[in-house]
Amino acid sequence: MSTEAQKVGWAALLKPAWFPALAVLVGGVLLHSMNVLMLATVLPSIVEDVGGATLMSLPTTLFLASSIVAACCTGYINAVVGARRAFATGALIFGLGALVCALASTMAHVIIGRFVQGFGGGLLAAMAYVLVRSTFPEMIWTRAITLLSGAWSMSILFGPLLGGAFATYGNWRGAFYAVTALACVLAVVAVRALPRTLTGHGARPRVPGLRVALISAAIFAMSAAAASPVATVKAALFLAAIGGLALMLYIDRRAAAPLLPRDAFSFNTMTGIGLWLALLISASFSPLQLFVPTFLQVLHGLDPLAAGYMVAGGSLGWTVASIVVAGASPRWVARLLVMGPLAMAVALFGLAGLLPLKPFVLSIGPIILLGIGIGSTWAFTAQRVMSGARKGEETVAASSVATVQQAGGALGAALAGLIANLAGLSGGLTVADVTAAAYWVPACFIAIALAATVAGIRLTRTGAP
Questions:
Q1: What angle do CA 172, 117, 396 make, to 5 degrees?
Q2: Helix and strand tally (H, E) in the chain?
Q3: pLDDT digits over 385-426, tens only?
Q4: What is the DSSP letter of 207?
Q5: Are residues 315 and 336 located together in one domain of the fold?
Q6: Structural domains in the chain (count)
Q7: Is 261 inside any structural domain?
Q8: How far is Cα 388 from Cα 463, in angstroms, rounded to an integer?
Q9: Of 226, 256, 286, which closes a domain?
Q10: Measured distance CA(153)–CA(149) in Å, rounded
Q11: Are 112 and 66 spatial neighbours (Cβ–Cβ below 8 Å)?
């Protein structure tokens, strides 16, 4: 971060001229992110109404897969229709998917609706980063990204609230109708609030079908790895998923219109190392939302709402930390890029040791610390990814932040499921099996957080933007 950027306060970002665009971008990210947890709240009611208990994992899996595919295609879509239209279209697609879910008569219809929602949500999340780069000067990128990351973290509060408010009164469909209405309003406001100059440049590159297919296959393989009861099959599917992603990256670097920067995951450039750091810290954060609520319910007798809002402490830590450090000096930015992931490693160590112990309040500290770790690092990581972009790849680099964030979450989810099932969770939610999983899931992710710490050290030595 430059000295000029350091001196700029929040007032520069929140001035009246930029507020409408900023509100639209934050609203789009929040709408997308909160729907993951909203579904978790209403899913039991959906199954009770339309059946399909054996398919309960597919609405979330296909939502995530579709989101990642959309995020990967952001550069292509932006080139064809422009950033403003792409964002508004993403909101309409998201609303259409929610409407399909609201009208569903079977679980298959819900799955289809969630797949459509995922694509629209992926466009919203990725385009938000593209529009930050195009709408605001570089000196306030970090603060704008801080607000976007705050939307991701606060989704854990609003998602269960929206779903629970309708499910409590036996009207789960109302939650999706509400989302449909919100998405339509967002699309209309986006057309009016976002800058008119953000339009496509007329180029129409080829649809990256093979690369999108490889990404989709990798996501499905990761999901199947977590669900498979056979350990060898789990390992094979997970390795196949990693191999598919590696092959996609190899092809993408040689493509005329890449989905990711050509130096993505390079160990020698700011953008490449920054994407490594974004991937690893996103993966390190994923067990908190996926398994910790279940651990708290089974081991400590918390009800679902109480467990969910205890985990919200991680989101609170993320939000508060990102706001506090937004104006950090260049020296402190370098320190935070290392201290953040290291704090996440310490938090995961604490969760592994304290989750099985009573009273449950012992786990609150590590949960909050995990959020503080990612919150103190995320905005600076994203800013360096964008600032280090090669000439001509600025838009691709900006959209890659959301792509890699969701890919990290998907990899983390698959790995957490694999570890939990190997620890005994596949046999049922007995206290003994959950106790073992509550130790092994966070314990194994310590290594990922430490790898992120190494990436942070490397990023600070590569140079500041």
A1: 150
A2: 19, 0
A3: 988 988 888 878 887 887 788 788 777 877 887 788 788 776
A4: P
A5: yes
A6: 3
A7: no
A8: 9
A9: 256
A10: 6
A11: no
